[in-house]
Design brief:
Distance between the termini: 59 Å
Shape: globular
Pathway: Cofactor biosynthesis; riboflavin biosynthesis; 5-amino-6-(D-ribitylamino)uracil from GTP: step 1/4
CATH superfamily: GTP cyclohydrolase II
Cofactor: Zn(2+)
Structural class: alpha/beta
GO molecular function: 3,4-dihydroxy-2-butanone-4-phosphate synthase activity; GTP binding; GTP cyclohydrolase II activity; zinc ion binding
Family: Belongs to the GTP cyclohydrolase II family. In the N-terminal section; belongs to the DHBP synthase family.
Strand order of the largest sheet: 1-2-3-5-4-6-7
Bound molecules: guanosine-5'-triphosphate
Organism: Neolewinella litorea
Helix content: 25-40%
Length: 229
């Protein structure tokens, strides 16, 4: 086997920044929304929030980014189950980025769902469905003055590319028919429409804005219609 070409590794390291994303750049999108809610594996996961049964859902050929359900061990599917649909945000959920409210929302959701014996469904919809590469490009554009909507549009992408059909499939698989949905996003509530799962109540999940996410949250409130105070 040929050894790696270390010169190109060094070069890549010292290249300061990639060029600004431009309209017309090739668009790399993550795999299309998985609509196949097939239960592939599960195990008990003890967390600081309490124990959850973690269940991975994916289609047959889609092992790499399964959606995850974290189910309280005493969840009663016959009740009005507290449910959080949380879209993946590596920057916020994993690394605590302050550019968005995602990490704090996930923390709060896990507390509420643990207390209320409910379910968190962790949907692999990084960057509102555009993937981490495009989200980082969008952040670069936001640092130049565009807002979160304008940045996606500038890249030729949808403002919000998410679909929630698979979440309904997962809830059905868990035997759940009636939910209290933790969200500020009207599109998440609307996505249940006249489907098999009834949203009996919406529960707000609002975190206090900070310096780094104030304008992001303002755009979500004023231009994306999120129910934020
Ligand atoms: N494209 C893009 N995505 C972002 C940006 N900031 C955060 N996100 C993504 O937005 C999504 C937010 O997910 P959620 O918190 O589940 O959903 P929400 O639409 O904020 O609605 P809530 O249920 O009220 O929290 C995640 O996938 C983040 O990765 C951004 O500036 N641009």
């Amino acid at each position: 086997m040929q050894p790696p070409d270390l010169r190109s590794v060094t070069l890549a390291r010292i290249t300061p920044m990639p060029p600004m994303p431009q309209q017309g750049d090739p668009i790399l999108l993550p795999p299309a929304d998985l609509t196949d809610a097939t239960r592939r594996a599960e195990a008990l996961i003890p967390t600081p929030y309490g124990d959850f049964r973690m269940i991975a859902y994916a289609g047959e050929a889609e092992d790499y980014t399964p959606h995850l359900a974290l189910v309280h061990p005493d969840m009663d599917p016959k009740g009005e189950v507290i449910v959080r649909l949380h879209s993946e945000c590596i920057t916020g959920d994993l690394f605590g980025s302050k550019r968005c409210d995602c990490g704090e929302q996930l923390d709060r959701a896990l507390r509420m769902v643990s207390a209320g014996k409910g379910v968190v469904i962790y949907l692999r919809q990084e960057g509102r469905g555009i993937g981490i590469i495009n989200k980082l490009k969008a952040y670069q554009l936001q640092d130049q003055g565009l807002d979160t909507i304008q940045a996606n549009l500038h890249l030729g992408l949808e403002i919000d590319a998410r679909h929630y059909g698979v979440a309904q499939g997962i809830l059905q698989d868990l035997g759940i028919n009636r939910i209290q949905l933790l969200t500020n996003n009207p599109l998440k509530v609307d996505s249940f429409g006249d489907g098999p799962i009834e949203v009996v109540r919406r529960l707000p999940i609002i975190v206090s804005p900070g310096e780094a996410n104030r304008s992001y949250l303002r755009t979500k409130q004023l231009d994306m219609g999120h129910w934020l105070k």
